[in-house]
Amino acid sequence: MRTARKIVIFAAILTLFLGAFSTLVSAQITEIVSDPEDDVIIISEDVFEGDTGEDFVLEKTADKPNIDITKLTYIREEGSTQVTVKLEVNSRGIIEDRNDFEDVDPDDLTFTGSIVTYGLSLETSENFYEMEYMAGNCTLNYGEINATVIGNVLSITFNLDDISETFVSLIGTTMQFDINSLTDIKYYMDIAPDSALFTAYPSASPTTAKTGESINFAGEYDDSFGISVAPYTYTWTFDDGTTSNEQSPTHSYQSPGTYFVRLKVEDSQGLSSEGTIQVTITTGQSSNGGNTNGGSTDDTDDGAGLLLFIVVIAIIVIIGVVALVFVIRR
């Protein structure tokens, strides 16, 4: 009996422990962004020579593991403003503290050296937080910050401006600039996630319209580094319960208000990007139809003026006739 009682007590304690542990785990908000290895982009000085008539070609290299981002992590304890973001590079590399340009002599034409920077951009529902780490120094666009480096992981901790802020996105950027000679200059970079290099651009004309008025939307994208693969699909969400899969749809709204129209562009490999544009709808009939266009308004005004003129003439005639009869009777 005593043995059975001990087992029951142990099981109860273990259950309480596991429950408390699961509560602690669930209270932590974590977002992870993964990025492929060995996808550092290399840009040589030849790329900037635009007289060849050819589109510039960007190469990828596996020789820069120190700036090859593999993972970004966002960690926040629920109910707290404190946030930790981490940038992890390839396991073959380390977070490097290098800035050979700090004390360079501008007149030294034989100078050679490198500079390495690590950047993180956190978007929340309320703010943008921009962080940069270079040569042991870490900066934040505003507020205090604490940075630590362990091997290939850079960890940055700071406080959000408001406890109500929620996570939207996290982007990491690494750069290395090498001057080997006056004729051998190279620039390396990596951005995570890759979708940050592929940007959707929605547009609308007009952006302010009346109820029932047609608005012309156009979907475009920017892929300067050639990372996407055709064909592309376009998905519009008009914020009124309707959608479209056309690249350049036409849409009208039946109720006044402010609408946030979202465009998602996706390539054949699943790489996607989203963009948002705001349109404002006011009460009134469409300016491209109905009785509110210029011609119809003028015709209506002319008709109303003519009717008023006839009524006035009729009144004058009636008064004149009455006056004439009164005079005759006298």
Structure, explained:
It contains 2 helices and 20 strands. By secondary structure, the protein is α+β, with helices and mostly antiparallel strands. It has 2 domains: 25-197, no CATH class; 199-282, Immunoglobulin-like (Sandwich), CATH 2.60.40.10. A 7-stranded antiparallel β-sheet has the order 3-2-12-11-6-7-8, with no helix packed on it. Strands 1-4-5-10-9 form a 5-stranded antiparallel β-sheet. The model is unreliable at 47-56, 289-302 and 324-328 (pLDDT under 50).
What is the secondary structure topology, with strand pairs?
Blueprint (H helix, E strand, L loop, with lengths): L1 H25 L1 E7 L5 E5 L14 E3 L7 E9 L4 E8 L23 E12 L3 E7 L2 E4 L5 E5 L2 E7 L7 E15 L2 E9 L6 E7 L2 E3 L4 E8 L10 E5 L5 E2 L5 E2 L5 E10 L5 E11 L11 H36 L1
- C-alpha Rg (nearest Å): 34 Å
**Which sequence of strands runs across the widest sheet?**
3-2-12-11-6-7-8
Query: In percent terms, what proportion of residues is strand?
Result: 35-45%
Number of contiguous helices:
2
Mean pLDDT: 81
Overall structural class, as computed from helix and strand content, comes to alpha+beta
Give the total of beta strands: 20
N/C terminus separation: 134 Å
**How many domain regions?**
2
Instruction: List low-confidence stretches.
Output: 47-56, 289-302, 324-328
Report the sheet with the most strands, covering strand number, pairing sense and barrel closure. Answer: 7 strands, antiparallel
Helix-strand topology string: HEEEEEEEEEEEEEEEEEEEEH
Residue share in helix: 10-25%
Give the overall shape: extended
